[in-house]
């Protein structure tokens, strides 16, 4: 044996790399969230900023704790790969902007510990951690999770200043009744339940629907336009494929359009569905989660469309005004099945894996 | 006799002889051919065989065998692979620019040897000079068409190139000859011409020197057997005496093989000598798979690299085969794009090696079992034959005794 041969461990090809990394991917997704987040801060003031920071901090804290307990070697590197921070960020985007601090802490716990680390950490989780947390919070703490505030904007005279914002965030200062309100979907739902039809609720033109997002809602869901812009950035950067978002939006819009055409008094118009709640956030940022979505293009179409349809069903017939979180979780559970049955065709084989027939040769 | 490391990542050594050059660089008696284009196909194949020509694209399959086989299979199209498969390598490009006429001659000879009617030269469209040179050289040969193909790795891979040039998707376990084509590399065409026309054996090949650590990257005609060390020294050595060298590779960056050191010979399949720095290699500990699906989108063979690697990690090799491991061409696309930098190809190469070893072991045990069975059968047969012989003897004896006895009393028989 040549002693020189042992100086290097043999490494298989390729000997070059495209340069991507997990951290880079996560950071770019976060970048895409920045405009909508800043808009959320502007809309809902200091409490929103505190909530956002606390949710991310909670997720990082729980992640660090889990990694430490699990005896991971590269705690710091894993912590800063950006995945826990992104989970926290996405969760924060779906919370009522003036929710108190403990929502952030409990949410972070559910997302990271239950939603992710229990399954084995990054890449192993079956469900989208942020959605697990969001749904768990909604089911366990319905009151703080549905206390929405009127957008005041930081400039507004009635908007809480830094100190007041901190006190609201710490729960020392209850949210004044005057500024609480319902989201568009929630409002429509309660009114429908009272027997008032949608014409009366929304006015003929549906003018409550606004692209600007100046209406009550979650921290990051209000600005449909900015979220869609961020999604476009992800698409153009090749971080997500068009299949998931387009399928989600189509899945939501198609049944909504049909139902609305048949009975506009009872079913919201498709554009209302697309422009409110977590539709855009869900389509571009949540359903596209790599870990919990199928990894073939065809599978992604099925997955996305089903999320859209389920969200529409829950919004229209279910007990909750919003359905994106639930439907994402439902379809996450279906992902392994989709991946099992929807596979790319192997080159030189038919869909069932048998070699293609040798084509007949023209006589030469 | 001396020992050198084989040009293989195993680092195994092999015996070698040392030739010392006299500096004259003169050929011995050659057997040029005056009218090479009138030779009959068998004669061309024989000269190619005598010259020791193998596919110079990297696979190093004996060319004479391929030429003869193609003729027997009755191929109609000869495909010439001018699609430099890998980034970093430019030896094929260089040859097409510099020796287009020789290559075209070689192609014409190969057409004769294979009996194919047309030749299509696939050249990636990012090599306009090579395309122009080859077009000019092929202008007088109507049977030779130069076809630009998209510059998309792994275009140099046989299946991909055939697909683009003929529009036929090769069946999974088929060979090109099944669909009437045969593929050769441009370098091989050039070597075929040298062998048939000038009678020159294959003793050298063009090698690309590249990588950030190489002082003077370029293409060099290298005599086979020259140590990579000597080639690099000839080309001016490494930058900063090799400080910052992260990986030594023979071949291209996507499919080449890492070398433990530079005392390895250039062989017929050596297309490149790369001295890569840390930035190029970007080696770092892999992160967990985030199921991003990039590898699935990147795979030109339509496979699920993440699923295959997961199965291999769990030692479920049979399952990995079920989902297509054997269709993997080890092109490296999946590992190249993986953000978690998972060494996917390493998994696949390892698994294929493991399967091959299992297969060998199975054949061995099969053979032993068969021998044991044969032995048992032989023993049984002997026993049976002995028993039969004994029975026969007994029967004969009884018959004899019966005959010797007085005739049986019929009355007895009836009453019984
Ligand atoms: S190396 Fe990767 S990309 Fe290439 S064929 Fe194999 S699995 Fe597909
Ligand atoms: S590219 Fe890498 S991280 Fe992405 S799915 Fe494939 S193996 Fe996993």
UniProtKB/TrEMBL annotation, chain A:
Q: Name one GO biological process term.
A: transmembrane transport
Supply one GO CC term from the record. Answer: plasma membrane
Name of the protein in its database record: Ion-translocating oxidoreductase complex subunit D
Give the enzyme class.
translocase
Q: Which cofactor does it need?
A: FMN
So what EC number does this one have?
7.-.-.-
Function of the protein: Part of a membrane-bound complex that couples electron transfer with translocation of ions across the membrane.
Q: How does it sit in the membrane?
A: Multi-pass membrane protein
Q: Which residues carry this modification: FMN phosphoryl threonine?
A: 183
According to its UniProt record, which protein family does this protein belong to?
A: Belongs to the NqrB/RnfD family.
The residue ranges crossing the membrane are: 41-62, 98-115, 225-252, 272-291, 298-318, 324-342
* Tagged with keyword Methyltransferase: no
* Species of provenance: Nitrogeniibacter mangrovi
Q: Where is this region: Disordered?
A: 1-22
